[in-house]
Design goal:
Elements lengths: L1 E5 L2 H18 L5 E4 L6 H12 L9 E4 L1 E3 L10 H8 L11 E2 L8 H14 L5 E4 L21 E4 L2 H7 L12 E4 L2 H5 L3 E6 L5 H9 L17 E6 L13
Parallel strand pairs: 1-10, 2-3, 2-6, 3-5, 6-9, 9-10
Antiparallel strand pairs: 4-8, 7-8
Bound molecules: 2-amino-2-deoxy-6-O-phosphono-alpha-D-glucopyranose.
2-amino-2-deoxy-6-O-phosphono-alpha-D-glucopyranose binds next to helix 5.
Length: 248
């Protein structure tokens, strides 16, 4: 486990974007990216947009799988995660949108749709690099505390804490969806490499629990401690709860 502390969000975005771009260059085949939403990875996507304009990164053969999507929001809803990805990244880089996948929050048969999502990831050869944020309660994707560490893509109920955190993006609390489809913790752990980004004082406890706490379903991000290739890129304000020296 590598822990990198940077001064601000812009530095975090640049570091993360370059880390993944370097891995993309090493692989001479369609690259499979796992992507996250939330405000935290926005500087990473902004850095990729700028690198792409300068010809420093090529998305033409990249395949992407997003972590999660709200149940009941159409892809055209401005708070859906599909809309977010188009708006922040896909509309501004040379990616083929047919190669971008987000769980279907409108699926009639959610179970079949989740199994098909897992099968599609497998068929593409698995995820090369998974981008993660972290919830203030330690969730990754929408795997809330109490999620099984081996869980797969499925429908989950959101906790009151997450609904409150995410209400800032909606007109009112009642507009926030109460359930979502999310890759499982087991799905995330199958990625070859993982990078978790965190920023802001409200993430201090979640970050410290994830990196230095016990591995427990009470903090889903703590499961990352079992992964051989995980990097945490934190801004200074999110890292103040760390006490140990992290070497690898
Ligand atoms: C949502 C997403 C998570 C994300 C979290 C934190 O719940 N499902 O993937 O990590 O929000 O969001 P933010 O980065 O805006 O703090």
């Amino acid at each position: 486990m590598k822990v990198i502390v940077v001064k601000d969000k812009k530095a975090m975005g640049k570091k993360g974007a370059e880390l993944i771009a370097a891995d993309m260059k090493k692989k001479d085949r369609p690259y499979v990216l796992g992507l996250a939403t939330g405000s935290t990875p926005e500087p990473v996507y902004a850095a990729w947009v700028s690198m792409c304009k300068k010809g420093q990164i090529d998305f033409s053969t990249v395949i992407t799988f997003n972590l999660d999507e709200y149940v009941g929001l159409k892809p055209t809803h401005d708070q859906s995660y599909r809309y977010f990805m188009n708006d922040k990244l896909f509309n501004h880089v040379n990616i083929n949108k047919k190669n971008t996948f987000v769980p279907d929050g409108m699926a009639r048969d959610i179970e079949t749709s989740c199994a098909a999502y897992e099968a599609k990831i497998d068929a593409c050869g698995g995820i090369d690099y998974q981008v993660l944020g972290i919830g203030s309660n330690g969730h990754i994707a929408f795997n809330e505390p109490g999620s099984s560490l081996g869980s797969r893509t499925r429908k989950v109920k959101l906790t009151a804490n997450t609904i409150k955190d995410n209400s800032r993006f909606f007109k009112s609390m009642k507009d926030v969806p109460k359930s979502a489809i999310t890759m499982g913790i087991g799905t995330v752990l199958d990625a070859e490499n993982i990078v978790l980004f965190a920023t802001g004082a409200n993430k201090v406890k979640a970050v410290a629990d994830a990196i230095e706490g016990p591995i427990t379903a009470s903090c889903p991000a703590s499961a990352l401690q079992t992964h051989p290739n995980v990097t945490f890129i934190l801004t200074k304000d999110a890292a103040t709860g760390l006490k140990l020296m992290h070497q690898s």
